[in-house]
Structures are given as C-alpha cells and as structure tokens.
Backbone:
C-alpha cells in the first residue's frame, strides 16, 4: 500500500509539469497582456514593466525561465495584477478561505445528501422518496447565481438571520456554504439512493434477511458499505474543485478566496496567478483521487494495491 | 405419521409487473415430514424459488405479494406471524442456502462476522463463543484450516468453499428445515457432487428436513424422499421418488425424464421437450403445458384436476383423470 502511494505521488510530478506547461501556453497565447488594462500606462512604462517581469523575452525563453524557477525554487513567480505580491502570497491568502468554504459546503452536502438518499432508498417509491428526489432534481438544476441571491433575500434581507456577504466570523460562512452545497447535496442524495437501492436488491442482502437479522442491522452492517462506494469515488473530483475555489459563489459573497483571485487575475492577464491556481487545483485533484483510492481499498477488501 | 413439520396449503404468490400479474406460485400445496427431503424440480421460471422465498416471507414487496394460502410450520401459520416473530424463525428454525455462492455472501465482511452474527442473534452466544461455534461449523462442512481461514473475506474462497460456508451458516442454529435453492447449479460437476454429499451427510447427522430445489432430476433421485414437479407456478405431479421415476404420470414429468442424460447409454442427441418455457404473463386458460404437450387434446383447454394415480402419487393431467375413470 505504501509503495502504491509513493508510486502514485511520483507519477504525479510529470503530470503536474504537463499541466503547468499547457496552462502556461494557453494563457500566454490568449490575446492581450498584463499591462494593457484600463489603467493605460504610457508605452515607456509598459516596456519597463515587461522587462522587469521578463515578458519582453521570446516565449520559449520565458517558459524555460519559469519552469526553472518552479522546479528548482518552488517559486510560482510574481503577480502582475497585485503588483507587490508573489503568486505564493496570493495562494496563501486565498486557499485557506476557499478550503474552509468548500470543505464546509461538502461536509454539509455529505451529511444532508446521504441522509436524504438513505431515507429515499428505504422508502422506495413512496411520497418521501419522490419528494426527496424532486428536491434533488431542483438542487441539480438551479444555478448558484440564482440560489445565492435567493438565500440572501430570504435569510438575510428579510429574516435578518445572517449577514448577506463579506468575510469575517463564521456566520459569514453559512450562506455561501449553503449555496455551494445545494448542487452537491442533490447529487450525493441521488448517488446514495441509487447505490443503496441496488445493494438492497442484491443476493447477499437476501442472505442477511434470511438469517433473521433486523432491518436496521441489515442496513447498517450489510448494505451501507457497498452503497457508499459511488459517493466515495464522486467525492475526489468534487472536493478538489470545491477546495480549489469556486468562482461564482466567491464573487457573489465577496469572499477573498482562490476563485475570486483567479477570475480577477484572468481578466488582468496575470499569467503567473492563472498557472499557479491551476496547479493548485490539479494538485488537489491528484491528492484527493489518491485518497479516494485508499478509502476505496479500506471499504472493499477485494481491492488490493501493490 | 403425525402432523407434518411443514404444510403448505394453497399458496399463491404473484408479481405485479407492467405486463400484468405474474402468478409465479399458483395454488401450491405440499407437506414435508420432519427429517424428510422434498425435491422440487422444474424448468427455469416455474416458481421454485418464489415458493421457497414465500415460505421464508422474503418475497420483495412490491412488486411481489403473497396473495393467499397458508404455510403451516410446526402447526403455526407463518403468513400470520408478525415481522418480529418471523425473524425469530428465519435462520433459526428455517434456514436457506442459495444458488449463487459468489454473490450470496457479503463481499465486505469477513467470513467470521457473517457466521457469528447468526449464532449471536439466535443462540445468544457472546462474541467468543460465537466464534468458537463458527470455527466448529466450518470444520464440520470441511473447510481446512478453519481457525485461520475464518478471518478471510469471501473473495479469498473458491465457489465450492463459499457454498460450504453458506451451508455452515445455514446449519449453525440447528434448523428444523433447510431450504436449498439450487445449491450446486453454479458449481462445476465434481464440486457439485461433494456439496450434495455434504448436505446428505449433515442432514442425516442433524436430522434436518430439507427442501431441495433443482432443475436436475438426477440430483433429486439420489437425495429426495418425495419429489414435486412444478410447471408454470403449479405442482403438476408429486410422488415418492421411486414411484415418480418408475411411473411418471404427467407428460411434463415424462418429458423431463426422457431429457435426462443416461450415464450407461451413449445417446447421440439428448431428448428435449419441444417449445419454450411458458410466458408467465400469457398462460393458456386450461393446462399450461398444452402448447408443448404431445398428448394435448380437447379437454386440455380446461384446467386439469389433480388426481391420485398411485400411493401418495398425484398428477394434474386430463390423461390421468380419464385412465382413473376407465379403471
Ligand atoms: N422480483 C420479481 N419481479 C417480477 N417477477 C418475478 C420476480 N421474481 C420472480 N418473478 C417471476 O416469477 C416466476 C417464477 O420465478 P422463480 O424465480 O420462482 O423461478 P425458478 O423456478 O426458481 O427458476 P430458476 O430455475 O431460473 O431459478 C418467473 O416467471 C419470474 O419472472
Ligand atoms: S392436461 Fe392435456 S395438455 Fe396438459 S399435460 Fe395433460 S394431456 Fe398434456
Ligand atoms: Mg430459482
């Protein structure tokens, strides 16, 4: 198992380098440049700035310089959007906020979604089941930029329960986390329901019932594990994108997270931040998928990694 | 003979599907004495499994429902018990083993847990005693090195070994009745023989009554005291095993016997009953076997009566009725 983990981590390095390369060229080949904004610097200043950041050199030379810096010094470069800060600074500020928000949202989604899914599966084809799944369809189809303002209007502007936006104490976390969790709650509810319905139909559940076990024991001891597997595999990529920053919700609630920095940087052609954030998300994805594989093996004894 | 251990009376179980009602078990009655073995044979879809699942009250509802009849077990109608009373019988007094040992064990739990939970539940053993009992049972069914293998997961066992585990599980509370639903169908031939031998041996040692479900008449010949032949949800013939093989009365049973491979005779091509198993949603109004029966005639468009054709030998075919009245 340890060997498997080490090999996967080693394998991640070339993958990440490819990710950096592709995103580097994609941003650099996009039209526009970092200092051509509404600020409209005089041409002489732009030239100076370009020279300072090495942007006057040919593209391939810039690439090699950048890669050298990333690999040898683990330095993701300076930010051209936030002039006095490095990409590392920006990530260090944004990532914890995004992770707190995304983590809370996903935890909420797991608890609510699995509870709803289990209840729906146990009351298959009942009113409760249809109701829960109808809400789930709604949750999947209603976009964040509609749900967010809706929650703000009801819970904040009408009932005055919660602050509408900005970032500070934990009460600021609730509305954006709820908004963000809706889609995932709905999806996890459906995954849990279908997984459990399938398991409950399987032969080994019939065996468990034939032993005379109570339904609650059949569910908790025999059925739940197998039905968790789809949720586990879904959780890797879902969590990676949530922790790596979400653009719409962070913008909507004015949260200084990675998604917010990313979109501002992209608008300002700040290639170093764009590549840096992409790298963070890719790393999260790789690590969390590895965690998923490990959890999978813990749940399912038939899977053994060598 | 006193009252039978199990007496199934006019059992009716249906599935309500999009194509309409499927009468998977339609007015089935039979008795089973303590310690005896009843073989139930019939083609795929004839209602053998639904019969046994109805006895255990494990029919998935919906789409299925036990519509009527009685399942008298030790004088008690199982169909009238509360869920809790029924759970006290399942696994303890009536145990069941299933066709596919690959999928019938929980792949996520160790063999140990799957064995101990049943004796903890029904015999009130604590963990340690339940584990000792489980090892004993594994040894009884011939798992070598049981004390060590008990901590394996099902996927570490072969098909035959898994079926042995299933048998160990089923017998761990000394049930009065064991229902074995095609216990060997999924196994290869040599393993089949071993498993049957094992069931036979344990049945004798423990005095368990057995319902052995199979579509293989050969299996029944060596194991069963009585045989019931099912077709399209009904028992079309039932008889003591010898009598059934010597004087099969129903054309379907005769067809089944003719299609049995004879180990002593090299036959170029095996006989096959013509036609396909019936479409359970569109059964003919009279005898369900009529479309495939070589003797089908005008009266067969009415449901045939079940009549005695010998000692404890009954058949549901108009031919038998006529020979009865002629005799
Ligand atoms: N869950 C179900 N839903 C709908 N119909 C069912 C269900 N289970 C069984 N049936 C129907 O009941 C009939 C009898 O099925 P059963 O499983 O008892 O057959 P069987 O004699 O055991 O056959 P096999 O030899 O294939 O095991 C079949 O026609 C089948 O279609
Ligand atoms: S009743 Fe008629 S159709 Fe049915 S088995 Fe007898 S002879 Fe054949
Ligand atoms: Mg069957």
Residues:
């Amino acid at each position: 198992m340890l060997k498997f983990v080490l090999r996967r981590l080693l394998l991640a390095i070339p993958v990440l380098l490819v990710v950096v390369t592709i995103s580097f060229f994609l941003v650099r080949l996009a039209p526009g440049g970092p200092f051509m904004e509404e600020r409209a610097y005089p041409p002489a200043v732009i030239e100076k700035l370009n020279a300072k950041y090495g942007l006057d050199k040919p593209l391939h030379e810039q690439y090699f310089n950048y890669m050298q810096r990333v690999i040898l010094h683990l330095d993701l470069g300076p930010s051209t959007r936030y002039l006095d800060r490095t990409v590392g600074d920006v990530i260090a500020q944004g990532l914890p906020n995004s992770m707190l928000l995304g983590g809370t949202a996903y935890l909420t989604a797991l608890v609510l979604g699995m509870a709803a899914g289990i209840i729906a599966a146990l009351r298959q084809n009942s009113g409760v089941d249809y109701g829960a799944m109808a809400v789930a369809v709604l949750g999947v189809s209603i976009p964040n930029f509609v749900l967010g303002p809706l929650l703000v209007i009801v819970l904040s502007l009408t009932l005055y329960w919660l602050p509408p936006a900005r970032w500070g104490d934990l009460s600021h976390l609730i509305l954006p986390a709820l908004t963000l969790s809706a889609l995932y709650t709905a999806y996890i509810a459906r995954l849990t329901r279908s997984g459990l319905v399938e398991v409950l139909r399987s032969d080994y559940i019939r065996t468990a019932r034939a032993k005379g076990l109570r339904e609650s024991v059949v569910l908790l001891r025999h059925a739940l594990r197998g039905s968790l597997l789809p949720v586990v595999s879904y959780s890797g990529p879902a969590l990676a994108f949530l922790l790596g920053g979400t653009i719409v919700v962070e913008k909507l609630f004015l949260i200084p997270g990675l998604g917010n920095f990313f979109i501002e940087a992209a608008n300002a052609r700040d290639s170093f931040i764009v590549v840096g954030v992409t790298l963070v998300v890719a790393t999260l994805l790789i690590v969390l998928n590895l965690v998923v594989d490990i959890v999978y093996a813990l749940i399912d004894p038939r899977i053994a990694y060598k | 003979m006193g009252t039978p251990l199990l007496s199934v009376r006019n059992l009716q179980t249906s599935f309500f599907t999009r194509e309409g009602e499927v009468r998977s078990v339609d007015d089935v009655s039979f008795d089973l004495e303590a310690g005896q073995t009843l073989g139930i044979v019939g083609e795929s879809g004839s209602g053998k499994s639904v019969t046994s699942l109805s006895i255990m009250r494990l029919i998935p509802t919906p789409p299925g429902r036990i519509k009527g009849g009685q399942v008298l077990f030790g004088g008690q109608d199982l169909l009238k018990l509360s869920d809790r009373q029924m759970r006290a019988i399942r696994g303890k007094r009536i145990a069941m083993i299933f066709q596919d040992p690959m999928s019938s064990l929980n792949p996520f739990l160790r063999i140990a847990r799957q064995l101990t939970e049943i004796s903890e539940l029904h015999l009130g053993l604590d963990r340690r005693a339940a584990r000792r009992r489980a090892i004993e049972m594994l040894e009884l069914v011939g798992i070598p090195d049981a004390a060590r293998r008990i901590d394996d997961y099902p996927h570490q066992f072969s098909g035959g070994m898994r079926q042995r585990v299933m048998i160990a599980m089923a017998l761990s509370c000394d049930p009065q009745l064991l229902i074995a639903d095609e216990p060997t169908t999924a196994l290869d031939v040599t393993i089949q023989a071993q498993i049957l031998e094992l069931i036979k041996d344990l049945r004798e040692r423990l005095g368990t009554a057995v319902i052995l479900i199979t579509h293989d008449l050969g299996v029944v010949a060596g194991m069963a005291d009585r045989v019931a032949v099912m077709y399209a949800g009904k028992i079309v013939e039932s008889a003591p095993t010898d009598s059934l093989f010597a004087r099969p009365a129903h054309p379907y049973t005769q067809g089944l016997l003719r299609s049995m491979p004879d180990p002593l005779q090299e036959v170029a091509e095996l006989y096959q009953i013509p036609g396909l198993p019936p479409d359970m949603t569109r059964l003919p109004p009279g005898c369900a076997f009529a479309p495939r029966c070589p003797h089908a005639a005008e009266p067969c468009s009415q449901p045939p009566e079940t009549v005695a054709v010998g000692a404890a030998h009954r058949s549901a075919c108009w031919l038998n009725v006529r020979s009865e009245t002629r005799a």
Remarks:
- The interface with chain B takes residues 125, 201-204, 206-214, 217, 221-222, 225-226, 299-302 of chain A (CB under 8 Å).
- DSSP finds twelve helices and no strands in chain A.
- The mean pLDDT of chain A is 84.
- Residues 87-122 of chain A form the longest helix (36 residues).
